[in-house]
Design goal:
heterotetramer; A: Butyryl-Coa Dehydrogenase, subunit A, domain 1; Butyryl-CoA Dehydrogenase, subunit A, domain 2; 3 domains; two-stranded antiparallel sheet; globular; B: Butyryl-CoA Dehydrogenase, subunit A, domain 2; Butyryl-CoA Dehydrogenase, subunit A, domain 3; 11 helices; Acyl-CoA dehydrogenase (chains B, C)
Chain lengths: 387, 402, 402, 387
């Protein structure tokens, strides 16, 4: 658990980042949403998840080529749009809203942050253009402040051997970014997916729309990206930014869950009335809307601090994951319940949202984990250890 | 303190035991075929002793069954696999007993109880869930038959059932509660089509049943024409009363699984999860003690409305504890054993994976009366709070918004 | 992006500053009497710059006020103690501005703003709380006057107020929303009796006001006869919009007090309380950021419905955090400083004792719109969910069940 | 924190105590309720709490004399009714329902358990008859498994010196039972309230109906009741039985809060309808009723195990305090909220219930404290201490 250089109760953080959406962001959102409406309606998603190609690579290429979603936060010099993580967060919201099965989180967020940190412009450019995708080879559940993973070892001749379980977005990836332990400590390697000694085993995943895979490396040739502190920082930075962006994805999930439920209850009749006119349900949906309103502010603040390099980013991301994870799970649970029987069926999209929300709540550190980290950052320590 | 069967003094526990011994003497479970033994047990009045003589019972209080069951279990006698035929035993049988003609009772109850004929329930429809009385499946009189057309849903065991209890609309021109009639439907009749209904766990416990011009003889009507809503109340009342039997041991439910994972995996523990687990453990214990309290009340002949509280609490607890399990497991919870479509005959919450439990538990607050409907019932029937303004009670069914 | 005052180009910030300097030059705050300074400020159009010229303003966008306030604060000018006269500023003034005659505006607004005349609000009644439109206080026309009789409640500042805004029923024979008229009432008139209303904290912030044949000249009517409900909407809308101004620092609310107790008293900590505190801290931070988001929206000229969410969340947080504080303090929380009846002029949640906070916070979800009503508003106006069947909109008020 | 000899997950506890009310208990309840209806209606209570006599000693004598509530669990040989703590719990429910300002908890429960443990028949008999009352001189917040208090010391000549804060039911008491530390360790003394050196200072208390006082002893003469383990056990037993009985009082509070609220909402009209017909309120009250139904089972089980000397009593009482404390607070908070403005006034009884419930939640160990104790009893340990 990291310790805080400055504590929260000194009241230094007041105004901070812009929390609103800019006009550019509104346009970006509209473009992404239009493309997803055409190519990623939920029946399409549902039909795909039980096939051999659970990821829609074609859609991802299209999103990258037509809207440029893969390189928004990448500097123009490195082949990106030179925008910021704020814009990327808008994309995350929309992809969450559509439970889109694309390697956004793994490639355009986790890998891109890591590669920007280590300065691999060539690969960053490929990812930004969408011509290639990459995945960060850690279990999806890894928290930003977790210990550096030790499952893969560097062997003589710069080859890697070991295993990593439950990796997201690796099935469609061209390149794996692999944290490994060498003689000199932590290191980060790029491994070609097609290289000898690389085996991926698809995993039946709780989240049908973000299929995991187990990675096995047997003397697989790697290209060193960074070592020592640089490798550690690149990994931590990737996971930290990932956790911020994940909150925006969770916000999108929650918003769509509420919108779908409201639409359903407006039209469904029981007892001669629209079901949505029953006060108990109205109050629950109002509570959910209040929660989503707060989640939006929290998620925007988190990504804003990350985009601005604000020193409050540590607190902001921990708050976002503490708050938005549970809110998104609640929203999708309510979606299932308030759809009655139909929300319990495979043929209705509610379960895609429920499963994504629950998996997201475990991804990149649980809410519980982030609250525990927060305790150190804001000087609210636990029980003295004497007992 | 039951007042049933006051006319003749009920047989004592000893006399009951003697009857069981007589059955066992003439039908040695070790050598008698299972169905044959069950039929003999039914004929001896030892199937459900609170049923009348001649229909598998002896007209005794319900509690006397415990004596019979204990004796038979001790002798290694086969049972009728009650979980498999739960709908027949719990819903169809009490309704046939109350509303059936003597011919219907004689025809249906024995194979129902022995399990030779499985029953299912054709009540819910896609457009009529909590508001069951809004149902739109039509039954039109045609000579001595009724011709039934419509769609039913959430029908467990439909693919194995020989018979169904069915509610259908026989008069759309009167308010919705008044135009319903109750039937027994032959699931093998032409025009009955059963399709599996896959649920979010990947499995299909339930079915959709499509009825396309299915002929039902009027002799298979239960109760009067237009009285189906009242008849269905007997069915539904029996659905919710399912508490009884043995006291439940502590940690018997899924809290036991969560506690075991906690004990066996210190590396998964965090302070926040500890607090959550302790709260859930206390809630589970409170629910267990409430069921025990209810069991004692029923045994004392004082049934109460707390059964709805128990169902309600059960659903919430299952959902919360299974959600906790996934959070506790972390990475492991991101993996789900298998999404392949299967057709289980019963739900096994404790035997399934944590992911299955989490997803399946979502149904607990929907099936058999949503938690929202249960809250309404508690508020109105137990607390006596006023009903909401109703606009659907006096309007002809056909004019209701749908 | 406001479109107000498009006719003439609005003065720039520099021009506004010049106006302030002119005021300060002619009325040195160090030597000018407070009231005199405030009157001069009003006359210079620097009281509320978004009000029209001649009524204390300059017809500018609301945001321009920040420039004025900052300049005046820097010069050490006195303010009008806005918390003391909040009802006048926030509720009476916008309503008088929108519905008042020019005579009424000229008579009331200046002393209202300077604080020379305190205002209170006579809306709620014992029988009409959330359902304000059910109010029963009668106003009967008598020549050029109205004669008002009834009882009002929850009136803060009534014991210090010179004027009241009042809604009263002028026609009981039409549906309830249609028979209401809006008045300005002289609190010093014969027949007005103010009694303190003690609340569960032991204090009496509020009053009951008894009106017994109080005469109100028709010239003090605001808006048309029977239009009082619409007029009152302006008043109430302005009650809920109170976000703005400065960004709120982290831990500024009562979470800061709880956190301080936690930091200073390690001996009180337990793992369960730690988990609760962290959750509350996160919730408080989420509420703070939501207010900041809202502030940025207002500053960008995009007001939204999220203000109701903020009030709602504020009430819940205050209640939860103050409950936590007592649990954390343990034995000390069993003691309450003083139950003696007092008459505070404003609520001091942060300065009071933890026990006071706990009790006073119970009012946060009742006053200014209960949390239940806010949820209705969110569900219907924001989410667009259908209203409930209403039976009270077309019936004459006198025939409604009470 | 005590450790458990047998753990919970061995599935030994199945049936256990009778949880229902017997006919005798129903009659007892009716008698107590009738007497309280005549002499302890809430306006009477409200009028009393701001006087110099916040306790209604007359009512207590009457309850003891006419219904025998003070000595129900005391053996007949010692002047009691020879019933059990089960019957006492019924009285606790009724006194809670009436927020009755009588020294029941301090005298008929805490002191009586302690005196029965140390075998002081004479004083027990006086308490049982209601002719005298006693108070246990510990802060009301003391948990059963708290360390033996060290605020009072035994000085040469069997005199006691020290201070105890926030003692319940001591203002009307004739005798104080004082835990004290002597040379030989823990001891329990009886101190006459009228003795020299005894000072009581009334405390303005959150709970208006159970006024606390601070006790100061300056060389006050004491009579030794027990020392060493016997003193420790007597104190712990008193607090443990007290915690069980407190759950029944809390149950009574919650039941009355619900009943009063339901009555109000049935008759109060808003928007042309009884307020109780609004579904959102109905659902909240239904939830509360479910909670109260569970609380009843939990409280009956706790007092049943205590009455039977069941080894599961430790778990049962911890569960009861964990569950019923918070339920009672919730019920009274809902009572205030759902009464709208009137529930916020001094002149309505809601606040008497709210304050009693919140104080009860802190009394004899908070819910949080009891959950922490429970963790040890049921083998659900916290995080290993290595971090």
């Amino acid at each position: 658990m990291s310790t805080a250089p400055s504590t929260a109760h000194d009241h230094t953080h007041t105004a901070g980042p812009d929390l609103l959406y800019s006009e550019v962001e509104d346009e970006l959102r509209a473009s992404v949403r239009a493309l997803l409406a055409d190519h990623c309606a939920w029946p399409t998603v549902l039909a795909r998840v039980e096939t051999d190609e659970p990821y829609d690579v074609g859609l991802w290429r299209r999103l990258a080529a037509e809207v440029g979603v893969a390189g928004l936060a990448v500097p123009e010099a490195e082949g990106g749009a030179g925008a910021s993580w704020r814009e990327v967060a808008v994309v995350a919201e929309e992809l969450g809203r559509a439970v889109a099965p694309v390697p956004f989180l793994g490639s355009a967020v986790l890998s891109t942050v890591a590669l920007l940190a280590v300065g691999d412009s060539a690969l960053v450019g490929d990812l930004a253009s969408g011509t290639r995708t990459a995945a960060l080879a850690v279990p999806l559940s890894t928290a930003p402040d977790a210990a550096f993973p030790g499952g893969v070892r560097v062997e003589p001749g710069e080859v890697l051997t070991g295993a990593v379980t439950s990796v997201a977005d690796v099935l469609p990836a061209d390149v794996l970014l692999v944290p490994a332990l060498g003689e000199a400590g932590p290191a980060l390697y790029a491994v070609d997916r097609a290289a000898e000694g690389v085996t991926l085993t698809g995993v039946s995943s709780l989240d049908l729309t973000r299929r995991l895979a187990d990675v096995t490396l047997r003397a697989a040739p790697g290209r060193l990206l960074a070592s020592g502190t640089a490798a550690r920082d690149a990994l931590r930075g990737a996971l930290h930014t990932g956790a911020a962006l994940l909150a925006s994805e969770q916000l999108g999930l929650a918003e769509q869950a509420l919108a779908t439920t409201v639409d359903y209850l407006r039209t469904r009749h029981q007892f001669g009335r629209p079901v949505g006119s029953f006060q108990a349900l109205k109050h629950r949906l109002a509570d959910l809307w209040v929660g989503i309103t707060q989640a939006r502010a929290v998620a925007r603040y988190a990504v804003g601090t990350v985009a601005d390099g604000d020193p409050d980013a540590g607190v902001a991301v921990a708050v976002a994951q503490s708050f938005v994870s549970e809110l998104a799970v609640l929203a999708t649970e309510e979606m299932v319940q308030l759809h009655g029987g139909v929300g319990f069926t495979w043929e209705h999209p509610a379960h895609l949202y429920l499963k994504r929300a629950k998996a997201d709540a475990i991804a990149l550190g649980s809410a519980d984990h982030h609250r525990a980290s927060l305790a150190g950052l804001i000087d609210l320590p636990g029980v003295p250890a004497v007992r | 303190m039951s007042t049933e069967a006051h006319q003749a003094p009920p047989p004592s526990a000893d006399e009951l035991r003697q009857r069981v011994r007589d059955l066992l003497a003439t039908h040695d479970p070790a050598t008698t075929e299972r169905v044959e033994f069950l039929r003999a047990r039914f004929d001896a009045g030892l199937a459900w002793v609170h049923f009348p003589v001649g229909l598998g019972g002896l007209g005794l209080p319900r509690v006397s069954q415990e004596v019979v069951d204990a004796e038979l279990a001790a002798a290694g006698a086969p049972d009728n696999n009650p979980r498999r035929i739960g709908i027949g035993l719990g819903m169809a049988a009490p309704t046939i007993l109350r509303y059936g003609t003597s011919e219907q009772q004689a025809r249906f109850l024995r194979p129902l109880w022995t399990g030779e004929e499985v029953w299912c329930q054709l009540f819910s429809e896609p457009g009529a869930g909590s508001d069951l009385a809004a149902l739109g499946t039509r039954a039109v009189r045609d000579g001595d038959d009724w011709v039934v057309t419509g769609q039913k849903v959430w029908t467990s065991m439909a693919h194995e059932a020989r018979w169904a209890i069915l509610v259908a609309r026989t008069d759309p021109d009167v308010p919705k509660h008044q135009g319903i009639t109750y039937f027994v439907l032959d699931m093998t009749a032409p025009g009955v089509q059963v399709r599996p209904l896959r649920q979010l766990t990947g499995e299909a416990e339930f079915n959709e049943v499509f009825l396309d011009g299915v002929r039902v003889p009027d002799s298979q009507r239960l109760g009067a024409v237009g009285e189906g809503w009242r008849v269905a109340q007997t069915t539904l009342m029996n659905e919710r009363v399912s508490i009884g039997g043995m006291a439940e041991p502590r940690e018997a439910g899924i809290i036991g699984l969560a506690a075991r994972t906690w004990r066996e995996h210190p590396e998964l523990r965090t302070p926040g999860l500890h607090e959550r687990l302790l709260r859930l453990w206390v809630d589970a214990e409170a629910a267990r003690l409430t069921k025990e309290w209810l069991r004692q009340r029923l045994a004392a002949g004082q049934p109460g409305p707390e059964g709805s509280a128990a169902k309600f609490a059960f659903a919430r607890l299952n959902q919360q504890i299974s959600g906790f399990e996934l959070d506790l497991l972390g990475e492991q919870a991101l993996r789900y054993p298998d999404w392949t479509m299967r057709r289980p005959t019963q739900v096994d919450m404790l035997g399934g994976s944590p992911g299955f439990r989490y997803l399946r538990a979502k149904g607990n607050s929907i099936e058999g009366g949503t938690s929202e409907i249960l809250r309404n019932i508690i508020a109105e029937r137990v607390l006596g709070l006023p009903t909401e303004p109703r606009i659907d009670k006096d309007v002809p069914w056909k004019d209701l918004p749908k």
